Amino acid sequence: MSTPSVSPKPVKTNRIGLQILDYRGGKTTLCAGCGHNAISERITEAFYEMGIQPERVMKMSGIGCSSKSPAYFMSRSFSFNTVHGRMPSVATGALLANKTMRSIGVSGDGDTVSIGMGQFIHLLRRNVPMIYIIEDNGVYGLTKGQFSATADIGSKLKTGVINDLPAIDTCALAIQIGATFVGRSFSGDKKQLSAMLKAAVAHQGTVMLDVISPCVTFNDHEGSTKSYKYMQEHEEAISEVGFVPHFEDIAVEYDPNTTVDVRLHDGSHLRLRKLHEGYDPTDKVQATKMLMESHAKGEVLTGVFYVDTQKPDFASLLNMVDEPLATLSQERVRPRREVLAEIMDAHS
Amino acid sequence: MTTSGLVAQGQTTSSLVRGGKQIVNDFSIQIATVNGSGSQSANSVLLRSIFRMGVPVSGKNLFPSNIAGLPTWYTIRVSKHGWVARKTDIDVLIAMNPETAQQDVLSLSAGAAVIYDESFKLNERRADVTFYPVPFDQLTASTGADAKIRKLVKNMVYVGVAAQLLSIDMEWIEKSVRKQFAKKVKAAELNLSAVRAGFEYAASSLTQQNPYLVEPMNATQGKIIIDGNAAAAMGAMFAGVTVVTWYPITPSSSVVEQLIDYMKKYRIEQDGKASFAIVQAEDELAAIGMVIGAGWAGARSMTATSGPGISLMAEFAGLAYFTEIPGVIFDVQRTGPSTGMPTRTSQGDLTFIAGLSHGDTKHVMLIPASVKECYEFGIAAFDIAEQMQTLVFVLSDLDLGMNNWMSEPFEYPEKPIQRGKVLNAKQLEELGGFARYKDVDGDAIPYRTLPGTDHPAAAYFTRGSGHNEKALYSERPDEYENNMLRLARKFETAKTLVPQPILEGDGKQKIGIIAFGTSHWAVIESRDQLERESHLETDYLRVRAYPFTQEIHDFVASHERIYVVEQNRDAQMLHLLKVDLDPAQTVKLRSVLHFNGLPIDARTLTTAIASQEGAGK
Ligand SMILES: Cc1ncc(C[n+]2csc(CCOP(=O)(O)OP(=O)(O)O)c2C)c(N)n1
Ligand code: SF4
Ligand SMILES: [Mg+2]
């Protein structure tokens, strides 16, 4: 992206001729320093850099501070802030109506892992083609700081309340349930999160990204395992994530000795530089084992844990016509007169 | 018994030969079986044979919440007058269930006839009914049917016995059996031999003593028999539904099951691809969520459910109301919770749905009374939902949805599909943008765009929370209030789109009846009874939708006393009317309620109205 420029004020555009401005959203109303804001910026960049037409994107969310954030990126995309915990069903319905659209869902740990657990699991199981991001801060931000089900056991609220229930690991769960692209990152890790988001855009199927996103107001203090400080001290990347879009030259970065290369649906390449010996992102068992081991060690493992590019997504399973169902003409959706006569005859 | 004055004219040979007091084409048959014994085919053959003889019939299944083992009763009402409401008295009992046989016999009125398995030894129970013992097992065995399927074939034996005793034409029985087993020739032959075994046994070994006879008429020509759920499914298909989601629940499951059959047959394109998506959701929350997501993105979407499912949909119903998203929900009403009487009928979801959800919400309800209306409202619901940009609920009930009803054939929808106010890229270019929640046309219905519309000004942010005309976040009191007032005005606009009420009678009587849904059939029969027996003339207005239109106000204003007939305990329609009507008018309303889980019958109504009117029989 770094072409040296000579002219005084070159307008930088992406491959479809849009500027980053065309991907901006409204001004955020979240707290300054909230991890969610950083994620919005990465999303903005990823869609800009991938050259996705904003009008081709549906932004979906549930309820929470995190779920408000679609208002703060890509205003030219269609957006639906739904109800608490039920965004997956609305997103699924929208894609049934128009499978040619891209979809990105933003949720929170409360929105997904407590009230929304049922719908979340079924979204993954169906492999609905969308990016599903959990902005994970271990608390309910919007209702002022109660524990969520991803809060680590033993972690402490500002009020002194200690969580004595185990955390649910959304990544381990997603791998088991059938998501086809599962990763974890940290809102403060610009490089890793950007690469993951761009790969997510290229993937066909459910992408589940759990992004640790500290809540500076209710959960960024000593005793919180989802604070900036804790993350900086305990984050351990499973692998370094590199991503090469299909429209960029792949050979340049190719280095066969230390990387695992995953070819995504649109021809893009997700490259994991191995930090862990023998890490294979297509092995469910290994991925789950590593997650469990890191829990035991008190570490937060980040990276892309699992990718499956073979499993058909939900839209293809349904064998729908190529065009969006939403706008099929009357001729295609209202059977002919003879059909009515035939059914009437069967009941005569 | 309601048999007085209905003695047959005795024109045909069969009735002449038998002589005595005859009751022709005006009685009911009840078949008492065990759930899961496969009696549906046999019952359907009986029903359709009588229907094909030109005689009006209706069939009602009274079944338990159980897969196999508990008693079920299927009632066929034969009525030369065309009455199809439930009739409480049973004239001919076919007792196939040893568990209930004694009780079934005891509950008959004097003069009834009983066909039963001879091993039940029922004939000692009473002297005032006619008994026809039949060696069912022996007759079934004589057909050579495999031991495995004997239980099923046995049902056809009673069809044969009944055909002989009631003079049902064997020619029609044969045709009905063949149609029933259309693709299974062997099964048809086997079943026919069972029918014949029963018929011949009755002819040779039983002496026909009952007065009940079927004689050919010409009252069903061109008509069809169908259940309301299949009719609703047809409506949805011809409405051009594209996204269907559901979570199984009796009595609504067959709406979608039937729809799946139709869509697979008629909505697969030449390349083998589907012009629809049908998804069995994980629960009703997801089912309605998908409907709303699909409606938002521009599909014609629907789900079908019953009361407990509606309960789960409440939050989403509010979201759809405030975000103004179309969708159709078929509610096939039943009695209460899942452990209540889930297989019994009711009209108990009315007030719940009218204001379903949080904040101030109001929902459009269409209330079909007939299978034809299930089909027609099934189509109209999608048009209204998209025109109004709101959810439309179609309130059927178990009686309508799962039972067999005669009907005029359905008509092909001539009106083109109405997709409402949707702006495309070209229109946006001309307009230079749009405000999602602005009342441009004075009907309070705003314009919308669909995701994917290729214009930089097309997108908007959909949120249930406070928004201004431009769909921007707002917590300003005036903007919230304006939007709420517009939504209220939009509901007024709905009055111009919903099916109008239907008036029966000359409108000049003092007494009015208001009813809706399946109560209709009992009401029309009851009006006849009131007039013949008590000289009480009535006018009748059938409400077919909510919001209520002016006709309803006028009807109440122009009558002295109005009986509001409904199949629920709490007079839900009456309460909705009270909210709308001028307080001076509401004192005229009186309730006639029926809520025991069985479909309402005319006699209950007649008795209630006649006694309140001080008219003896
Ligand atoms: C049905 C329902 N119950 C409760 C709420 C209140 N509520 C709003 S946001 C929220 C929790 C959000 O937590 P999370 O998803 O983690 O988002 P965060 O604010 O932490 O980003 C709750 C309980 C609601 N909106 N709807
Ligand atoms: S309360 Fe927490 S989660 Fe919500 S905006 Fe503030 S920092 Fe972010
Ligand atoms: Mg949270």
Protein topology:
The complex is a heterodimer of chains A (348) and B (617).
Chain A (H helix, E strand, L loop, with lengths): L34 H15 L7 E5 L3 H4 L9 E4 L5 H11 L4 E7 H5 L3 H10 L4 E6 L2 E2 L5 E2 L22 H8 L3 E6 L3 H13 L4 E6 L15 H7 E3 L1 E6 L14 E5 L5 E6 L9 H14 L2 E8 L6 H4 L12 H4 L3 H10 L2
Parallel strand pairs in A: 1-2, 1-3, 3-4, 4-8, 7-8, 9-13
Antiparallel strand pairs in A: 5-6, 7-13, 10-12, 11-12
Helix pairs in contact in A: 1-7, 3-5, 6-9
Chain B lengths: L12 H6 L4 E2 L1 E9 L5 H13 L4 E6 L8 E9 L12 E4 L5 H6 L6 E5 L12 E5 L1 H7 L7 H17 L3 H11 L4 H21 L6 E2 L10 E4 H12 L3 E4 L6 H14 L10 E4 L3 H13 L4 E5 L1 H6 L1 H10 L3 E7 L16 H5 L9 E3 L4 H18 L2 E7 H5 L1 E4 L17 H7 L29 E3 L13 H18 L7 E3 L6 E6 L2 H16 L3 E6 L1 E2 L3 H8 L3 E6 L5 H9 L2 H4 L2 E5 L8 H11 L5
Parallel strand pairs in B: 1-8, 2-5, 5-6, 6-7, 10-11, 10-12, 12-13, 13-15, 14-15, 19-20, 19-22, 22-23
Antiparallel strand pairs in B: 2-4, 3-4, 9-16, 14-21, 18-20
Helix pairs in contact in B: 2-5, 2-6, 4-5, 4-7, 5-7, 6-7, 8-9, 8-14, 18-22
The complex binds thiamine diphosphate, iron/sulfur cluster and magnesium ion.
The site of magnesium ion has 9 residues of chain A, from α4 and β5.
Name the structural class of chain B. alpha/beta
Tally of structural domains of chain B: 4
What's the helix count of chain B? Answer: 22
Order of helices and strands of chain A: HEHEHEHHEEEHEHEHEEEEHEHHH
CATH topology of chain A: Rossmann fold
Q: What is the CA-CA span between the terminal residues of chain A?
A: 70 Å
Poorly predicted parts of chain A: none
Percent of residues in helices of chain A comes to 25-40%
Instruction: State the CATH architecture of chain A.
Output: 3-Layer(aba) Sandwich
* CATH-defined superfamily of the largest domain in chain B: Pyruvate-ferredoxin oxidoreductase, PFOR, domain III
Query: In which order are the strands of the major sheet of chain A placed?
Result: 2-1-3-4-8-7-13-9
Highest CATH level, the class of chain A: Alpha Beta
Ligand set: thiamine diphosphate, iron/sulfur cluster, magnesium ion
CATH topology of the largest domain in chain B: Pyruvate-ferredoxin Oxidoreductase, domain 3
